[in-house]
Write a structure and sequence with these properties.
GO biological process, one term: carbohydrate metabolic process
Largest sheet: 8 strands, parallel, barrel
Keywords: Glycosidase, Hydrolase
CATH architecture of the largest domain: Alpha-Beta Barrel
CATH class of the largest domain: Alpha Beta
Organism: Teretinema zuelzerae
Mean pLDDT: 91
Number of domains: 2
GO molecular function: beta-N-acetylhexosaminidase activity
Bound molecules: acetamide, zinc ion
Radius of gyration: 24 Å
Protein name: beta-N-acetylhexosaminidase
Number of strands: 18
């Protein structure tokens, strides 16, 4: 049977006789404009659907309606979509399911409009019943190495919501720039948000960077919430801290001088584990996050910490003595514990990259800590064995979209290669996990690290369509996944991405 061109592939699809077709949909305006003439299927329709249990929109000719109705027996984000010649009817138990169903319809309409160059839509009649495999389906965007505008961030949020994702992980700080305003700590954005870009000129006069205003952050968060996407901020601590140290040298072991880094890599200077000032700093940052982000979680980083400064620092040595720690590496476990407790006091749960598991024999792990497995799958497996919830984003399994999509000098991308097929094969809870461990896998995400990225266009080129492949790996049950089917559906999505003004890779998929 021919597939409908939906990504991620729904749980059940039954094609029926006839078509839901016409020239014009209910006239709405908004962000996603397919053409000037054809009515627009705009994401803000979501708001209207959210307010109404039963809602009906008619096309201008009144020949077709789109209906959202309350239904029973659906999972939280599950929905039914019944398409007849006169009606596209979404049923769900609440607004989330309704929104996911609406995105499926949006894809069908967009693909069909793309096919006719915006003149008409024509969707086969069908019955779809659908629900996601995992509750966490995410995308991470690194806005430190490259500062992306709030408008670009919003565009990506809208796109990932079209592909059934529900989590946007916002990487806001790193060695190359600090992007978050924090009350009482103005140097973070005055100094930490800017760096000299030596790639452009040998002279120190080419300054790049930026930060988001509070207003922009609130706008992004609200924009995401309207699309049923939770925004998880990440503040990377205690490593990847050059931008923090440039602004506040007193937080480092040596006192500096430090600079916001223009180079890429893992730097020796990290926050000093021996000074309480780092917790005053973290408290101010967490308060700012609490004010701006309603998310249940805060990501505290924890990846790629180098320990040589702690080995040499008298204050860090004293701290180790105070807590009976034998190795500087254990100081990271101690910091993770402190930060997670500070977040817990603020009603938030901490997430850390998988290195937070290291050297924790003595101090253990914070009780509710969620582990994000990136170096491979083993960190996720270990965290689950230790009873912790896990988000899988292994760079070894197609989740790192900054890698080249193809082994070619002509392709952008860094460090390694990840094909679309590899992203498609990603399984966040593979059969090697026991049922008990698999139950702790919240889901997964793909990450886009932005070292060496000159523009949002290049970022999109690397993200799409591999994000579509990961989206299917997160939503669709393994028995419903099929790469040949995905390739077929991708043809329609390429046209759709063109129509949505999204740059995307078009080369070999494997
Ligand atoms: C990471 O890729 N350093 C989390
Ligand atoms: Zn120190």
């Amino acid at each position: 049977m021919q597939d409908m061109c939906i990504i991620p592939r729904p749980s059940e699809t039954t094609l029926k006789e006839g078509f839901f077709q016409g020239r014009s949909l209910p006239p709405v305006t908004g962000d996603v404009r397919f053409s000037n003439e054809t009515a627009i299927f705009r994401a803000q329709m979501n708001d209207a659907f959210e307010r109404a249990d039963n809602m009906r929109m008619r096309s201008e000719s009144a020949a077709q309606s789109i209906v959202c109705a309350h239904g029973t027996g659906f999972a939280d984000e599950g929905y039914g979509l019944i398409i007849t010649e006169r009606e596209a009817r979404i049923e769900a138990s609440g607004p989330k399911g309704c929104y996911r169903g609406l995105q499926t319809l949006r894809q069908l309409l967009a693909a069909s409009l793309a096919d006719s160059e915006g003149r008409e839509f024509r969707i086969p009649c069908a019955e779809i019943r659908d629900e996601p495999r995992f509750p966490w389906r995410g995308f991470m965007l690194d806005c430190s190495r490259t500062f992306f505008s709030a408008a670009f961030v919003k565009k990506q949020i809208d796109l990932i919501s079209m592909y059934g994702m529900n989590t946007f992980h916002w990487h806001l700080t790193d060695d190359q720039g600090w992007r978050l305003p924090v009350k009482g700590w103005p140097k973070l954005t005055e100094i930490g948000a800017w760096r000299t870009d030596y790639h452009v000129s040998a002279e120190p006069d080419h300054i790049v960077g930026g930060f988001y205003t509070e207003e922009e952050i609130r706008e992004v968060v609200a924009y995401a919430a309207a699309r049923h996407i939770e925004v998880i901020p990440e503040i990377d601590l205690p490593g990847h801290a050059s931008a923090i140290l440039a602004a506040h040298p007193e937080l480092g072991c040596t006192g500096g001088p430090y600079a916001v880094e223009d180079r890429y890599g893992i730097f020796p200077d990290v926050l000093c584990a021996g000074t309480d000032k780092i917790f005053d700093f973290a408290a101010a940052v967490f308060d700012a996050l609490g004010d701006l982000f309603p998310s249940r979680f805060v990501h505290i980083g924890g990846d790629e910490v180098r320990f040589e400064r702690w080995k040499e620092c008298p204050r860090c040595s004293l701290r180790m003595k105070e807590f009976g720690l034998g190795k500087p590496e254990e100081l990271q476990a101690w910091i993770t514990m402190r930060l997670a407790n500070m977040l817990h006091e603020r009603g938030k749960t901490a997430i850390g990259w998988d290195e937070v598991l290291h050297e924790t024999e003595k101090l253990g792990l914070p009780e509710n800590l969620i582990v994000m497995s990136w170096t491979g799958t083993e960190g996720g497996f270990e965290a689950a064995r230790r009873g912790h919830r896990v988000v899988m984003t292994p760079m070894t399994d197609g989740c790192y979209l900054n890698f080249k999509p193809l082994d070619s000098q002509e392709e952008p991308g860094r460090l390694d290669i990840t094909t679309v097929k590899q992203s498609y094969a990603f399984d966040p809870a593979p059969p090697v996990m026991t049922a008990e461990q698999a139950a702790l896998v919240e889901g997964g995400q793909c990450n886009f690290w932005s070292e060496g990225i000159d523009s949002g266009r290049i970022a999109e080129y690397l993200v799409y369509p591999r994000l579509c492949a990961v989206a299917e790996s997160l939503w669709t049950r393994p028995e419903r996944k099929n790469f040949e089917s995905f390739k077929g559906r991708l043809r329609a999505h390429r046209k759709m991405l063109d129509l949505l003004n999204v740059c995307h890779y078009r080369g070999p998929l494997e």
